[in-house]
Design goal:
- This protein is α/β, with parallel strands linked by helices.
- Helix content is 43%, strand content 18%.
- It is built from eleven helices and eleven strands.
- The strands form two sheets. A seven-stranded mixed beta sheet has the order 3-2-1-4-5-10-11, sandwiched between helices.
- Strand 10 (285-290) and strand 11 (293-298) form a beta hairpin.
- The longest helix has 22 residues, at 141-162.
- The protein is elongated and about 70 Å long.
- The termini are far apart.
- The structure holds 6-O-phosphono-beta-D-fructofuranose.
- 6-O-phosphono-beta-D-fructofuranose (F6P) is lined by residues 13, 104, 127-129, 171-173, 225, 255.
Amino acid sequence: MAIKKIAVLTSGGDAPGMNAAVRAVARTALAKGMEVCGVYRGYDGLINENLLPMDLRTVSDIIHRGGTALYTARSEEFRTLEGQQKAAETCRKNGIEGVVVIGGDGSFRGAQDLTRQGIPCIGIPATIDNDISCCEYTIGYDTALNTCMHMIDKLRDTSQSHDRCSVVEVMGRRAGYLALNVGIAVGATTIVVPEVPFDFDRDILERIKATYETGKRHFIIIVAEGIGGVDEMAKKIEEKTGIETRPTVLGHVQRGGSPTVRDRVLASRMGNAAVELLCKGLSNRVVAMQMNSIVDFDIDEALAMKKPFDRAMYEVAHQISI
Ligand code: F6P
């Protein structure tokens, strides 16, 4: 029997492009003659029945906005069986026969739980960390890369003017993809990520000294959040090299801003694909992008996959940024 009504929610850390995905889910569902409602504040909204009936105009004027118009949360209550049962009950009471969950791996674990409660769920990967193993590019990653790049370009101007070293922390608690790619884009002298063991003397001091010998006078060191400690690193660099050094933590500004073309298009394709999967009667799947095609995986399998860190690219970055 054809699905008559679905819901869409955003969960976990927000990512630019989430709105474009919500819009695509809503418009695809409406085009297929289904009813659709938004859920406010992630799984909390399902537990508390905080729903927004959507028509074509509800999702107008959001494709270009960062953040999420549906708000987001990391729900503690949904981690409990009771919370999951309440959420499923809200779905049944409101005739919701499928839920599209837009978020990262924590949100997909929630989708598994809700599927276990009998509500079909489809995940859409949206996180600036790009740490979803089955997906080459997650929604929000490209925007965050560009935001970081622009901010670090500005830092370079002042760093160059003062012959200084800038030690910059970029987001990514467990993953260094953002740090690696931003590091390449800004020509960082060294990139420090959780995936590659690093040695302060060899990877930072020696590299600064070697490039100093060749005439370079300003330096950018990119450090992933998972490594942290940029204040101490900056002090130590200044102490050991005599080069004035300033730490900068870019912080949550990396999560905001208008999504890039790449993120808007990706989100639109994924939102459309998620509804198609629900219509085919599928559940517990996550939509992904591989070689520019939209594919999908079982969520259990997707969560068990490991995303290899591009060590070769890391080596290249260090070879050319000297
Ligand atoms: O997962 C996205 C992310 O921005 C990470 O890079 C970061 O470690 C984390 O979320 C920060 O979370 P919060 O918004 O709770 O501070």
